[in-house]
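Allow me, if you will, to draw on your knowledge of protein folds for a short while. I have a record of one protein: its chain in single-letter code and its fold written as discrete structure tokens. Kindly check, if you would, that the fold set down in the tokens agrees with what the sequence suggests. Thank you for your consideration; the sequence and its tokens are set out here:
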Amino acid sequence: MALTYSTSVKLHEPIPLFELPDASGKTYTLGNWADKNVLVMVFACNHCPYSQAVRPQLIELWNKLQAQGKSVQFVAINPNDAETYPEDATEKMKEERYAYPFPYLRDESQEVARDFGAVCTPDIFVYDRNRHLQYRGRLNDSWQHPSQATRHDLSDAIDCLLRGERCNVEQYPSMGCSIKWKQSGG
């Protein structure tokens, strides 16, 4: 497991287009969430301990936002090479221990991860209503011990966008396992 930090990217760039299936084969595109004011894209996987650690925190934040009726959509995307890392295979994504209450998509070709510039799991991107990147970074300042977090960067970024403001949250990189690229693809 190679610890990797997300790289800085140019903010306000438009979201890359994509068409990806979930573990059951249902296909999703950006059009599925055209009515949402905020779109949170999380590159994640099953086997990475960093992804495993933030998964319950992402689910808790999602549930809170849904209970409040917020116009926010979360989407997780698994880009890892399942041949080398079988725990990240599509069939494993169906298991309850890896499931999310929001779409968990499979990027078998890894093209979507490359288009986004994702480098680690988790790697978090937040887009505004016009689908321009407003935040890329960590979930909070204590991913291992969420009760000790003093900064809630992802939540703050979402709240800012829901208020119709430009995201003014300082952008600290995500950290996690490097994406497991296919040997032929990089």
Observations:
- The radius of gyration is 15 Å.
- The mean pLDDT is 93.
- The longest strand covers residues 72-78.
- The longest helix spans residues 49-67.
